[in-house]
Design a protein that fits this description.
There is one protein chain. Strands 10-9-8-6-3-2-1-11 form an 8-stranded mixed sheet, with helices on both faces. Strands 5-4-7 form a 3-stranded mixed sheet. It is built from 14 helices and 11 strands. The relative contact order is 0.16. The longest helix is centred in the middle third of the chain and has 36 residues. The protein has 2 domains: 223 residues, Metal-dependent hydrolases (TIM Barrel); 133 residues, no CATH class. Helix 13 links the parallel strand 9 and strand 10. The protein is α/β, with parallel strands linked by helices. It binds zinc ion.
């Protein structure tokens, strides 16, 4: 039998599903039933470790033999500026693994959270803040928000509410991952709530129509709302709706904000984790497919920060796998792999090219595997 691990799976803290952890663990159990060699899975969510504590509880519902070992961790969305090409942002997600959390261990979990959580909230808060400001500026430029209104005051109010909600939910609600991971969506809702309270828009639907991408039927819906709102002529309402629908949506490059790759690595190391570069292929692409150039950048800039491994096995990364393994061997880095299964049907646990043999993982988890 082939024994292997899949160190890259997500729970609903990365994507929205109901009853998320029970379903996630049931899927681990089903995968092990189908592939008895599946010995270990990594459970890493984007920028949060809030699923770890509930995981300990839910795990008790399953017979031990039915589940693979669950290795808790995190995937920090990080980026750095291309060392040579101006204006190019290179995305480098960093995985952090915490073997000390394999068995129920609340003392260590508290300690890790005390180090990681404030930094993650700060970074996500920054991303959210930039996005809110941009979105509101678009509303103002387009004339949806009258010039007589103090936009700084609205920005301030949205940020305060976001901070309140995010702190509350990070502390109490296992689904807070939805906010932590998608601050952009959540802050959009807060903006619309506030514009509604101020009487600037007449319904949440009106607010959404300004920010949703342009579509003929949306223009029609907005025209009907504006007609009722202002007592415009049907032609005027139509003309305004055509101009405003979809006009208040900042583009993706506008709201760029992430933690630096070096800081993400240092943070994981500081919290007592093992820092591993996720899917190097993604970063190699942003190096114009020059794997050698990217790996030499890693050697100079990321290894000194404490990077300990690379995800050599990953779906659709085959063309680089051997080069990455060679690089890991010559730089004494750990070799890992995983499917990046989000339970959304795109990748699935144990996909052939994402399997990492236990021989490699034993170096990472001596005494456990
Ligand atoms: Zn991932």
């Amino acid at each position: 039998m082939e024994y292997f691990g899949d160190l890259h799976t997500h729970t609903a803290h990365s994507r929205e599903v109901n009853n998320f952890l029970r379903l996630r663990l049931a899927s681990f159990s089903a995968a092990k039933g189908k592939m008895p060699g599946l010995t270990i899975v990594g459970m890493v969510d984007h920028d949060t470790m809030n699923a770890v504590e509930p995981m300990y509880r839910v795990r008790k519902e399953f017979p031990k033999a039915d589940l693979p070992i669950i290795l808790p961790g995190i995937e920090i969305s990080a980026s750095f500026r291309h060392p040579v090409k101006a204006g190019i942002i290179v995305e480098t997600d960093i995985l952090g693994y915490f073997p000390q959390l394999i068995e129920e261990n609340f003392a260590d979990l508290r300690q890790i959270n005390a180090i990681m959580q404030p930094e993650m909230l700060r970074v996500i808060g920054g991303k959210q803040k930039k996005n809110v400001n941009l979105k509101l500026e678009y509303f103002m430029i387009q004339g949806v928000i009258p010039r007589s209104i103090d936009i700084k005051l609205i920005q301030q109010k949205v940020h305060e509410r976001y901070q309140q909600d995010v702190l509350l939910m990070a502390a109490n609600d296992p689904k807070s991952g939805d906010i932590l991971n998608w601050p952009v969506h959540y802050s959009g809702k807060l903006i619309i709530d506030l514009l509604l309270e101020l009487g600037i828009i007449t319904s949440a639907k009106e607010g959404k129509l300004y920010t949703m991408r342009k579509r003929a039927d949306y223009v029609q819906q907005l025209a009907e709302i504006l007609l009722a709102k202002h007592g415009l002529s049907p032609e005027q309402a139509q003309e305004q709706a055509a101009r405003l629908q979809g006009s208040c949506q900042p583009s993706l490059s506008d709201d760029y904000y992430k933690i630096s790759t070096a800081d993400a690595i240092r943070l994981i190391v500081k919290a007592g984790g093992i820092a591993v570069l996720a899917h190097p292929m993604v970063s190699i692409k942003q190096f114009g497919n020059d794997a050698a150039a990217f790996l030499s950048f890693c050697k100079q800039e990321l290894l000194p920060c404490g990077l300990q491994g690379m995800e050599a096995f990953y779906p659709k990364q085959e063309e680089y796998t051997y080069q990455i393994i060679d690089f890991c061997h010559s730089n004494r880095l750990l070799i890992t792999g995983g499917s990046d299964d989000h339970q959304d049907g795109r990748n699935s646990i144990g996909d052939n090219n994402s399997r990492c043999s236990l021989e490699y993982l034993k170096a990472m988890l001596p005494g456990i595997l």
